[in-house]
Amino acid sequence: MNRQRGVSSLAMVLLLLVLGTLLLQGVSRQEASFASRVVTQSQALQRQAKVQSAMEWGRMQPWGIQPAVQCRHDTTQDTALCLRLLTNNYVLLIAHYEGVSLWRQGAVMDGNIAFSAHGWSDFCPLKELALCQIP
């Protein structure tokens, strides 16, 4: 009878050891998944911050009213900006960095470009998507 109790106690200890190992593996996988999400979100926030910074940099640049499409590159942040003159004296400033784009509308008034006070948009305000792309 004592021998049977020893075997059942040993089996219980082994079962608890296996269950504990499985739980630790699950927690480890979940932690790795969360860490991956944090890295992805952090990179997305960095890209968004860079493209917003490029948009403000581009807004402060002295743009001319010719040619119809003007592009500049901010080499310090590796971002691209283009100003597109549209019909009816409207303009569209496009900032792009690693797959993230922002747009800001403006108008030509008295030979100068004035951008909208409402800020940038994270979607293109034009129906023609080709006009929303960096050339």
Automatic annotation (TrEMBL):
Superkingdom per UniProt: Bacteria
InterPro entries according to UniProt: DUF2509 (IPR019652)
Protein name per its UniProtKB record: DUF2509 family protein
